[in-house]
Amino acid sequence: MTWKRRKLLTTLGGTGAVALAGCASVEEDGNGGNGGNGNGGNGNGGNGDDGNGNGDETVAGEAEIWYDLSESELEIMEGSIEEYNASTDFEIEGVDVAEMQDRLTSAIPTGEGPDVFIWAHDLAGDFSDSQFLSAQTGNFDLDVFTPAAQDAVEFEGEVYGLPFGAETVALLYNREIVDEPPETIEEMQSIMDEYHDPANNQYGLSYPIDAYFVSGYAHALGGFYYQTDGHELGLTNQETVDGLNIVIEELYPYSPDDPEYDPQMAVFTEGNAPFAINGPWELGNFDFDTGVTKLPAPDGGTASPYTGVQMFYFADGVEDEDSTAEAARDFTEWYTTNTDVSRELAEQQGLIPVLDELAGTDDLSDAVQGFTASLADGTPMPAHPRMNDVWGPVEDAVGNTLSGEMSLEDALADAEERVRDNWE
Question: How much of the chain, in percent, has pLDDT values that exceed 90?
Fold first, then answer.
């Protein structure tokens, strides 16, 4: 999904800093976006013709879904809701909400929130601890999804939703510049050396620098930020230091000076860099043929970026006997098991299918297969609430190193101390 939903360091009132590796902001007015004016997802849900193909017939159950989507994602979602409403006795209203993370934390406790909302799987720990979610354990057959997706929708033995796609970062390359993608960092550097000319606005690499985007190399040599087993921190482990040094010393020097997302992405979008490290949410934004492959490997290691599973969460208050819950469950099951929807999300958005019958099939696009290869090497984002205290200090450590304020070792030691202080 769009990268802005991937900013990791938002502090949410009453829930702690939720790791939003999977969250964004569409520039809507914050009052319900495209679905909040009574029109639902099908354009006519508020009038006498209720949009579900039933005319004046009684609706069996109604449910509201919140999401925060890009324009192209929104088109797929609204079309799916319209198709569903026209073919069932249930009625779904889709609401595109700006700043959704803030809206959820204020609306759910007061009963003014959605019945279902879309977010990445790593929100489960924080929101379940805050009693913002409704467990749906036993209500669905999860065997139709990949094992990784099944694991992602569970937290501490409870199922909180259904998955519909996976995503991670990979190496994007401009096929008009690069004939064969590199498999190693050394091969990648030889190509970047050929094109890197900052004086003429030409760069070797587009690489936004934050804790999420650099995770692939933090993990590449056996390092890690945080492991839920034993709540172990690995920021000062030599393997983590060495992995992050790959970014700082071997990759980032080929990028623009500003590590923020927009200036980094601009040089690739404008055709001024052969490579970008980014995710499937950017596909469709380029005027040139774009290839996708897994992150190039460092000597002695394998890049392993954080991976996320996009899912429908059931909000607190969605009870088993409620007709609203029936509508919410019926739609989410229809959507997440619909092979046509899954294929459209894959082909249009690069979202990796998690339906077992589609995952890894050869008939998906080269781009989806490239992201799938990166996903196979990836590391699932921890869903435990303690991870919320890790993102910010790691972000600051990398930033302070790039700015020359601190050595990487000192910055990571400081980050680890901050995390432990927050945990205490």
Answer: 76
Residue that the structure tokens 């390359």 belong to: 173
Tell whether 132 and 190 lie within a shared domain: no
CA distance 170 to 225: 20
Residues in CB range of 143: below 8 A, 6 or more apart = 150, 356
DSSP calls for 217-267: HHSTTS--SEETGGGEE-TTSHHHHHHHHIIIIIIGGGS-S--SHHHHHHH
Alpha carbon distance 268, 393 (integer Å):
28
pLDDT 10s digits, 365-418 = 899 999 999 999 999 999 999 999 999 999 999 999 999 999 999 999 999 999
CA distance readout (Å), 138 to 61, 120, 157? 21, 21, 11
pLDDT tens-digit map of 99-115: 888 899 999 999 999 99
Contact 117, 315 (CB under 8 A): yes
Domain shared by 364 and 413, yes or no = no
32 and 97 Cβ atoms separated by less than 8 Å: yes
State which residues form the domain around 183.
170-304+384-423
Residues 178 and 32 in one domain: no
Report how far residue 123's alpha carbon sits from residue 310's, in angstroms, rounded to the nearest whole number.
10
End-to-end CA distance of the chain, in Å? Answer: 34
Residue 172 CA to residue 308 CA, distance in Å, equals 18
